[in-house]
Amino acid sequence: MRKAEREIKDPVELENVIRRAEVCRLAMVDDGEPYIVPLNFGYRDGCLYFHCAREGRKLDVLRKDPHVCFELESDVRLVKGEKACHWSTSYESVIGWGTASILLDEKEVREGLEVLMSHYTEGPYDLDPRSLSLTAAIRVKVDRMNGKRSKR
Would you list the domain boundaries of the chain? Predict the structure, then answer.
């Protein structure tokens, strides 16, 4: 990282940024072409969880290559300056890499959805059995991540 003073290294601080983030962008490679999607997510025990339909481009891409990159940010605020080049942004962000698994088993899908829901609201969660049968979950085991902050 070019500006080492902005790097977030502490795992607890990295997880705090993740917990405050509202959206995770998941990046994949689809036949040599970058493909990125913004997703609702949950995080627990070193894994990110997402949900999707049981078929579609994301799953097709992940079946071919489960290696992913992800990005999240929190506390984003535009900082106005007196001149154009003096404007800035205050933020904290995390970029990481991991390996995705597609979860289709009802118990695993339910667990993934509960982790996801717990990121946004307290339980208990009334998960519709019919919806569960139509839903897949994606679990990304985080291999490594780093963070950056610019507080102004």
Answer: 4-145
